Amino acid sequence: MKTLFSIAAAALILLPGNVAAQAKRENATATIGGKTVSISYTGPSVRGRKVFTPAGPIAKDPNYPVWRAGADTSTTLHTETDLTIGGLAVPKGDYSMYVNLKDVENWELIINKQTGQWGLTYDQTQDLGRVKMKMAKPAAPVEVLKYTITGSGKSGKITLEWENYSGSVDIAAK
After folding, report:
1. Dihedral of the CA atoms 165, 166, 167, 172 (nearest 10)?
2. Are 44 and 56 in contact, with CB atoms under 8 Å apart?
3. Do the Cβ atoms of 69 and 160 come closer than 8 Å?
4. What pLDDT shows up at residue 22?
5. Count of other CB atoms within 10 angstroms of residue 1
6. Are β-strands 35-42 and 25-32 bridged in parallel, bridged antiparallel, or unpaired?
7. Nearest alpha carbon to residue 75 among 21, 13, 30, 118
């Protein structure tokens, strides 16, 4: 009986569509101002859903319209240098990132001082600040959520893409 239970549990974990079996932590990294800037996140898949609608999966999060901007544990930003993110002064260190989707066509990036929490745990009193993101439509639908950090020298850009949306914000080393 114990063996049968173990086999059944393993099968459930490996079934297609099981979020726990498919989700893995990703990293986006760049050198800005000679120092490392990185984002660690888990990228959920669209899987045929309309993600950014009032009936979509994001709207079911308890902090909606604030979204964890990823899946599972909170999306984190690590910077080895003081940055300006969309005009917001961000001292070197570690932060969590969220996105305010109150207006799904005009995202607002939230930099939060709390780290290490599950993605659905959001404390607004820990916000370092919020900045507007520049919105665009990706060339093709993006199945798995993706962050990129691009740049050279002292400046760059953070971009978040998923489904039919792309939001970006300029960054610069101080």
Report:
1. 170
2. no
3. yes
4. 53
5. 5
6. antiparallel
7. 118
Phi, psi for residue 49 in degrees, rounded to 5: -85, 160
Encode the chain (174 residues) as per-residue pLDDT tens digits: 444 434 444 443 333 444 444 579 999 999 999 999 999 999 999 999 999 999 999 999 999 999 999 999 999 999 999 999 999 999 999 999 999 999 999 999 999 999 999 999 999 999 999 999 999 999 999 999 999 999 989 999 999 999 999 999 999 999
Whether the ω angle into residue 57 lies within 30 degrees of 0, i.e. cis, is: no
- pLDDT value, residue 73: 94
Please state, in angstroms and rounded to a whole number, the distance separating the CA atoms of residues 154 and 159: 17
- Closest to 97 (Cα-Cα) out of 82, 115, 84: 115
β-bridge mates for residue 111, sequence order: 97, 129
Q: How far apart are CA 113 and CA 22, in angstroms?
A: 28
Structure tokens at 77: 């930003």
- Measuring CA to CA, which residue among 53, 20, 25, 59 is closest to residue 40? 25
How does DSSP classify residue 120?
T
Q: Which residue has the tokens 């910077």?
A: 79
pLDDT (0 to 100) of residue 84: 98
Q: Report H helices in the chain.
A: 2-14, 19-22
